């Protein structure tokens, strides 16, 4: 295995002593899909900044939909707070004018009292507005977060199954999840930016009135710092954007080292040092990247701060020269000092908020872009309502082909077959022969690249999708272990019908699960997840029974069972297949299994090899043909009888 390092991309650092270089997994090296991320990250600052108005509008629209009243309160209170800052500056200016006027001190103080009262009032009102804004924002934040996250989940639960086969989709989804948190931060930044702009406009007027050169000097003093902040924010986002695959790898390693499901095998094979070594390599790369980013950001912001500091000193030098030259009176100079300080604060606030809006806007942009791109992965919508499918009479597959994006050879290659209602048919073949992929296409989970799958003579896509789904049930080989009670786990098979306890127990009995469930600490109400209190673990065979019960509950026209008994003991397996045979002649069943003794009674057996349908017929027909099925059956039979040869 190569020892070449990849410091240019910053993914795998050179020479980590903890683990030999040969131990680096291929999937932990920089991969081709990261090139696109780097290209996007290299987009210019102005090009990304041009997207901000659109993103701000989208974020405000989302906030408005989430809570109109609180959004309006935050907007009005924030702008009013900016106006109060301006009003306070004007009051301060009036106080200084009165105090620097000619006349006895008591008279000057008395003349300044009304302005002092207005200044105190403006400070009090601004404080009250700040409390109002905080109160409204506290109520708005969870509502906006909920709406943003729900929109994300609405998409992720609706996209086609093949979307999850694509690495770029997974990376994009990972970045979009960060964007949901950026929505409310973007809204806060926009509101604060508006308040800063209002204050800045008022202060600008005051400074210009004193002397126009002061405004030019202020801009020169603030612009370098502002650009440095934006440049640093863009650097941070560039690094974030390039790290999608690396963050997902770290997430996987976190799960492998800190979850119960992997704990036993980790200890059994002594994988602790190996996984820690992989973590050191990936996290070491991340640390190197973070340190390099910190150096670049510190350099950029330091240069901006130095230039701005020198220019700020120049503002006060200019003010002193104007005062000494007699171009502005002493009262105006004092006011100018306050105005300059206020202007610097306003410019700093605006600069900070622009940087904040820019940074959060980029994260929010990933969220928006994912939602837009995900639309391409959604199932095709019909313009006119699709008809509801009637009970299955015939299921036909015509020249179906399916390809996975990372494979050249098709997983299913030009398969044609027909199944009649009430038949029990079996799909058999060696691993990787295309059985599960073909079944997924028949179930409507995957779409054929070419060819057609017909339900009663009409393509699946032309039927009402939800209604068709109610007539099909799939028991997957790689089933998910849902962290709910046994009752809920089975009821999920027909969740829309809210099945009663009698139906649930009957389905469990068909899958040999009823007695096993009753032996759990809380019976059917036992939580099947040890992550939570009072939760219980199930063995692989016990979970397989729960999954089969879920499939039997629906009593669908078409039941597809993919390796339903691979982890069952002989008694449970016999009960399961008796239930499957009980559907014969009444409901249609597609059975995928490597245990060929269980398909002897199937009406027809379809033999797959390298994605193609190579044999079909009854068990007796295929044994007599002495082809691939007969060979596989003979091998299994020999394992039971201790002799070679084709079993009868």
Number of strands: 10
Enter the CATH topology name of the largest domain.
ABC transporter transmembrane region fold
Trace the largest sheet across and list its strands: 6-7-8-3-9-10
Distance between the termini: 50 Å
Order of helices and strands: HHHHHHHHHHHEEEHEEHEHHHHEHEEEHH
- Strand-residue fraction? 5-15%
Low-confidence stretches: 1-43
**How many structural domains does the protein architecture include?**
3
Which sheet architecture does the biggest sheet show?
Answer: 6 strands, mixed
CATH superfamily of the largest domain: ABC transporter type 1, transmembrane domain
Q: What does the overall shape look like?
A: elongated
Oligomer: single chain
Portion of residues within helices: 55-70%
Domain ABC transporter: 392-635
Organism: Actinoplanes teichomyceticus
Subcellular location: Cell membrane
GO molecular function, one term: ATP binding
Q: What does this protein structure show overall?
A:
It contains 20 helices and 10 strands. It is α/β, with parallel strands linked by helices and 648 residues long. It has 3 domains: 46-377, ABC transporter transmembrane region fold, CATH 1.20.1560; 392-471 and 558-568 and 585-642, P-loop containing nucleotide triphosphate hydrolases (Rossmann fold), CATH 3.40.50.300; 481-555, Rossmann fold, CATH 3.40.50.300. The strands form 2 sheets. It has a 6-stranded mixed β-sheet, sandwiched between helices. It is elongated. The two termini are 50 Å apart. The model is unreliable at 1-43 (pLDDT under 50). Residues 72-354 form the ABC transmembrane type-1 domain. GO terms for molecular function: ABC-type oligopeptide transporter activity; ATP binding; ATP hydrolysis activity. It is found in: Cell membrane.
């Amino acid at each position: 295995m190569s020892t070449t390092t990849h410091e240019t991309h910053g993914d795998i650092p050179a020479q980590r002593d903890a683990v030999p270089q040969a131990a680096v997994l291929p999937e932990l090296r920089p991969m081709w899909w990261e090139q696109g991320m780097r290209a996007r990250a290299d987009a210019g600052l102005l090009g990304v900044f041009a997207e901000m108005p659109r993103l701000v509008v989208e974020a405000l629209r989302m906030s408005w939909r989430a809570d109109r009243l609180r959004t309006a309160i935050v907007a009005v209170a924030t702008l009013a707070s900016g106006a109060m800052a301006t009003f306070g500056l004007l009051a301060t200016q009036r106080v200084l004018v009165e105090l620097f006027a000619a006349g006895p001190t008591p008279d000057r103080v008395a003349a300044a009292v009304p302005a002092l009262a207005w200044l105190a009032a403006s400070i009090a009102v601004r404080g009250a507005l700040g409390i109002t804004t905080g109160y409204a924002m506290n109520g708005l934040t969870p509502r906006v977060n909920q709406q943003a996250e729900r929109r994300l989940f609405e998409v992720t639960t609706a996209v086609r199954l093949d979307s999850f086969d694509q690495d770029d989709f997974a990376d994009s989804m990972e970045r979009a999840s960060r964007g949901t948190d950026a929505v409310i931060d973007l809204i806060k930044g926009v509101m604060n930016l508006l308040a800063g702009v209002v204050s800045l406009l008022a202060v600008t007027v005051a400074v210009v009135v004193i002397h126009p050169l002061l405004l030019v000097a202020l801009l020169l003093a603030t612009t370098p710092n502002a650009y440095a902040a934006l440049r640093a924010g863009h650097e941070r986002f560039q690094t974030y954007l390039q790290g999608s695959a690396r963050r997902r790898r770290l997430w996987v390693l976190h799960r492998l080292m800190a979850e119960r499901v992997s704990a036993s095998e980790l200890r059994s094979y002594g994988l602790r040092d190996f996984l820690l070594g992989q973590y050191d390599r990936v996290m070491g790369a991340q640390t190197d990247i973070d340190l390099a980013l910190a150096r670049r950001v510190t350099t950029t912001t330091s240069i901006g701060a130095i230039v701005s500091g020198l220019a700020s000193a120049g503002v006060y030098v200019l003010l002193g020269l104007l005062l000494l030259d007699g171009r502005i009176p002493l009262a105006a100079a004092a006011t100018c000092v306050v105005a300059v300080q206020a202007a610097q604060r306003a410019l700093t606030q605006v600069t900070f908020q622009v940087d904040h809006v820019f940074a959060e806007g980029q994260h929010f942009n990933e969220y928006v872009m994912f939602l837009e791109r995900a639309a391409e992965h959604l199932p095709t919508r019909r313009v006119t309502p699709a008809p509801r499918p009637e009970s299955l009479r015939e299921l036909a597959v015509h020249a179906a082909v399916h390809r996975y994006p990372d494979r050249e050879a098709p997983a299913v290659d030009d398969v044609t077959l027909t199944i009649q209602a009430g038949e029990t048919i079996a799909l058999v073949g060696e691993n990787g022969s295309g059985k599960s992929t073909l079944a997924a296409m028949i179930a409507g989970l995957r779409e054929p690249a070419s060819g057609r799958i017909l339900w009663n003579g009409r393509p699946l896509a032309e039927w009402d999708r939800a209604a068709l789904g109610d007539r099909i049930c799939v028991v997957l080989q790689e089933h998910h272990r849902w962290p709910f009670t046994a009752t809920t786990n089975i009821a999920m098979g027909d969740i829309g019908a809210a099945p009663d306890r009698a139906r649930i127990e009957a389905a469990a009995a068909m899958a040999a699960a009823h007695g096993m469930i009753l032996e759990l600490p809380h019976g059917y109400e036992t939580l099947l997840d040890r992550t939570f209190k009072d939760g219980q673990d199930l063995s692989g065979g016990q979970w397989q029974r729960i999954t089969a019960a879920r499939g039997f509950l629906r009593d669908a026209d078409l039941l597809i069972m993919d390796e339903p008994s691979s982890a069952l003991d002989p008694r449970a397996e016999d009960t399961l297949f008796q239930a499957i045979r009980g559907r014969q002649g009444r409901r249609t069943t597609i059975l995928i299994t490597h245990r060929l003794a269980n398909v002897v009674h199937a009406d027809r057996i379809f033999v797959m090899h390298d994605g193609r349908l190579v044999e079909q017929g009854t068990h007796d027909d295929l044994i007599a043909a002495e082809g691939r099925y007969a060979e596989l059956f003979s091998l299994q039979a020999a394992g039971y009888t201790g002799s070679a040869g084709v079993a009868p």
